[in-house]
Write a structure and sequence with these properties.
Blueprint lengths: L1 H32 L2 H20 L9 E4 L14 E3 L8 H5 L36 E2 H11 L6 E4 L7 H16 L8 H12 L22 H19 L60 H18 L3 H5 L15 H14 L13 H4 L4 H18 L11 H4 L2 E5 L5 E5 L3 E3 L7 H6 E13 L4 E7 L14 E7 L8 E9 L1 H6 L7 E11 L3 E12 L1
Parallel strand pairs: 3-6
Antiparallel strand pairs: 1-4, 2-13, 5-6, 7-12, 8-11, 8-13, 9-10, 9-12
Helix pairs in contact: 2-8, 7-12, 10-12
The protein binds CU-O-CU linkage.
CU-O-CU linkage binds next to helix 6, helix 10 and helix 11.
Length: 549
């Protein structure tokens, strides 16, 4: 009898304990031992978003990323952004605004600022020819394209983990040749690394009267364009040294699952791609932590690391949905350096630098600090991927706007040695594609080639005037006597306060291009020089149209 009475209560007791166990204990144990269950639920949306939007599309295994100089330096084939003169928050004087682009005084290169216990000397300056001379990028590229007419304009950068042995051999050979060149040859590997050192650690002063400010290409809107140009010339030098004009750098695809470790051929001793000063624990197959914390590195399973990395990429790429957030803050002539970095520059860019630098060097040299970073051959594959992310970002969700509408950004300038040992001055500029070139005499008689500039949000109560130049030298703009000066846009005050209108400026350029001997060119460089005016005027699309006579 007692048994019969006791039995149900004991059963109840057991059942309740079991329920408690199920409710609290199992999830707790799961969480403590392996929190990936909870983790996966939280990050799943990011995870799949990043995978579908970045890795299943255009640039993974099936489609190498197509890279062409035309869509890099800025503006590509057609100009579709807007150019604002000036931004309403800045100075009310047009000319001031336009001339505030950063440009190093290249002849005044000096010793750089080094971190304590640096392992190299502070002299990163290239040797310069006297008298100082350079060529402009547009002249350089016209010659370069002309020289290798058929195959040099498009270089296809491929993911570093997907290249074949033949490619690896070329890359190894190119780096080996660069390392073997005389020390003072600008194409020498260490000389190339010093270019980065000089631009990153304050080797160049800004132009007069701001010579007290040292230029730094990090932590601002210069980050993406500087490094794009830098690896662009590195790539061309390497290609020329191995006799392959279509050579393209590999990109270390650390944002894809298969690419999250150091490509193994960078770690083979005796290879020119091997580098001693790297974190010994991070050799393949160790996975990179895109959000690496150098002071307290995390221990994770491979699956966890992959999930974290993809979720992190989503945040840095997709959530950074304005130009300031992604590209960093504006940085103009006279400004102190490092106004603020963009998302990807901070991480994964900086974090991977940290992750790779050696543990027993004072400042995690070489990759872990900028003055030595480019001495590691993997630097260029790392930056090739950073460059690719810029390109991807501008196309996200129907297209995002970078700084192409800011004249100061467009006018920022840098100097690099090219594959022919010429010093080239590059700038981020407005390049307009010509839909047709080398037209016959009859064609020219029938149709005029017309430069069309959309002018929007013109404030009708203000005087507005800007001059238009083609293929001109920005530092010495031509006046009305010269062919480069093609025309001017002028608007007198009329209408009411607050009324805005849209119009367009047109100028025929067939004859101009003949005079400039530019009829063969694929593109023209357009410079707008605001002369007077307050308030906003927005320059819209700039293109070339053919209009019948
Ligand atoms: Cu100028 Cu990855 O740094």
């Amino acid at each position: 009898m007692a048994n019969v009475i006791n039995h149900p209560s004991r059963f109840l007791h057991l059942a309740i304990s079991l329920i408690i166990l199920i409710i609290f204990l199992i999830p707790l144990i799961t969480f403590l031992n392996n929190n990936s269950l909870i983790f996966t639920i939280i990050t799943k949306p990011y995870f799949s978003y990043y995978l579908t939007s970045f890795n299943n599309q255009s640039h993974q295994s099936h489609y190498p990323w197509r890279f062409s100089w035309r869509n890099t330096f800025i503006n590509s084939l057609e100009f579709e952004g807007n150019v604002n003169y000036p931004s309403s928050s800045s100075s009310s004087n047009y000319s001031n605004d336009v001339s505030r682009a950063i440009s190093p005084d290249f002849t005044k290169c000096g010793p750089v600022d080094l971190p304590p216990n640096a392992i190299t000397s502070p002299y990163c300056c290239p040797t310069l020819a006297t008298p100082f001379k350079f060529i402009d990028f547009k002249d350089y590229i016209i010659n370069a394209t002309y020289k290798y007419k058929n195959n040099s304009s498009i270089r296809v950068r491929r993911a570093a983990h997907l290249v074949d042995d033949e490619f690896i051999a070329k890359l190894e050979k190119g780096i080996a040749i660069m390392k073997s060149l005389p020390n003072d040859d600008p194409r020498n590997f260490i000389q190339q690394a010093k270019v980065h050192c000089a631009y990153c650690n304050g080797g160049y002063p800004q132009k007069h009267p701001f010579q007290d400010q040292k230029i730094d290409v990090h932590r601002s809107w210069l980050f993406f364009p500087f490094h794009r140009f830098y690896i662009y010339f590195f790539e061309r030098i390497l290609g020329t040294l191995i006799g392959d004009p279509s050579f393209a750098l590999p990109y270390w695809n650390w944002d894809s699952i298969q690419g999250m470790q150091i490509p193994s051929y960078f770690t083979t001793p005796n290879s020119s791609l091997y580098h001693k000063l790297r974190h010994y624990k991070h050799m393949p197959p160790h996975l990179v932590d895109l959000n690496y914390d150098i002071l307290s590195p995390k221990i994770r399973t491979q699956d966890q690391q992959i999930s974290y990395n993809l979720a992190f990429m989503y945040k840095q790429m997709v959530l950074a949905n304005t130009k300031e957030l992604f590209m960093g803050s504006p940085y103009r002539l006279g400004d102190p350096a490092q106004p603020g970095p963009g998302s990807v520059e901070l991480a994964p860019h900086n974090t991977i630098h940290d992750w790779l630098g050696a543990v027993d060097t004072p400042n995690h040299e070489d990759m872990g600090t900028f003055y030595t970073a480019a001495r590691d051959p993997i630097f260029y594959a790392h930056h090739s991927n950073v460059d690719r992310l810029w390109e991807l970002w501008t196309k996200l969700e129907g297209g995002r706007r970078d700084y192409r509408d800011d004249p100061n950004w467009l006018d920022s300038k840098f100097f690099f040695y090219d594959e022919n040992l010429n010093l080239v001055r590059v700038k981020v500029s407005i390049i307009v594609k010509r839909p047709r070139k080398l037209r016959s005499k009859e064609e020219k008689e029938q149709e005029e080639e017309v430069l069309v500039i959309e002018v929007t949000e013109l404030q009708s109560y203000e005087n507005v005037k800007f001059d238009v130049h083609i293929d001109d030298d920005e530092d010495m703009l031509s006046d009305e006597n010269h062919a480069e000066f093609v025309g001017t846009f002028v608007s007198l005050p009329h209408g009411n306060h607050g009324h805005k209108s849209n119009t367009r400026f047109m100028v025929g350029i067939s004859k101009v291009l003949e005079n400039l001997e530019a009829e063969e060119d694929d593109h023209i460089v357009v410079t707008l020089v605001p002369m007077i005016g307050k308030g906003d005027v927005t320059i819209g699309r700039i293109n070339i149209q053919f209009m019948s006579k």
